[in-house]
């Protein structure tokens, strides 16, 4: 029982780390990645669809993203979605594809993106602490129902805290790596 709780704790905390990494992928660093447009949705015949599912999205160089839609009729829809997403650039539509030209980032922009990353880190830590709370509640319930002793409960809660500390350290390490990537000129 306790092992199952510990396994679930690790699994759920791992999901928080993976979610943080996906969030980080949407942040701009010195080199442009297609992850910047991952969260943009396009109205594809009445269904909101990810931009990456209605066209080919590639980073042609360090400052340019090129979007080639599967259907030419989608060009204005994609252009509008990019403008509404407010990612810091205006789309250039040449009739066949859309190019996004990203200017070099200023130090103020880099600091602002680091602030966004810190917010994402805080969200991940809250998620991890919520997993810890749920796991501790399950252990306390087992103790209350007399399925485990008080000593076993205390030991399990200590293990849950250790796992929590490890995952919080992973979050901090992931942030340090991303911060260095963002601030690198």
Please outline the helices and strands.
Blueprint: H1 2-25, E1 41-44, E2 47-50, E3 55-61, E4 64-69, H2 75-85, E5 91-93, E6 98-101, H3 107-144, H4 150-183
Antiparallel strand pairs: 1-2, 3-4, 4-6, 5-6
Helix/strand-derived category reads: alpha+beta
Classify the oligomer: single chain
Cα-based radius of gyration, to the nearest Å: 22 Å
Instruction: Report the end-to-end length measured between terminal Cα atoms.
Output: 50 Å
Please estimate the helix content. 55-70%
Spatial strand sequence of the major β-sheet:
3-4-6-5
CATH architecture of the largest domain: Orthogonal Bundle
Low-confidence stretches: none
Question: Please, how many helices?
Answer: 4
Shape: elongated
Name of the CATH homologous superfamily of the largest domain? Ribosome-recycling factor
State the major sheet: 4 strands, antiparallel
* DSSP summary, beta strand count: 6
Please give the domain count: 2
Explain what the structure shows:
With 185 residues, the chain is α+β, with helices and mostly antiparallel strands. It has helices at residues 2-25, 75-85, 107-144, 150-183; strands at residues 41-44, 47-50, 55-61, 64-69, 91-93, 98-101. Helix 1 (2-25) runs antiparallel to helix 3 and helix 1 (2-25) packs parallel to helix 4 (150-183). The protein starts with a helix and ends with a helix. The model has no long low-confidence stretch (mean pLDDT 90).
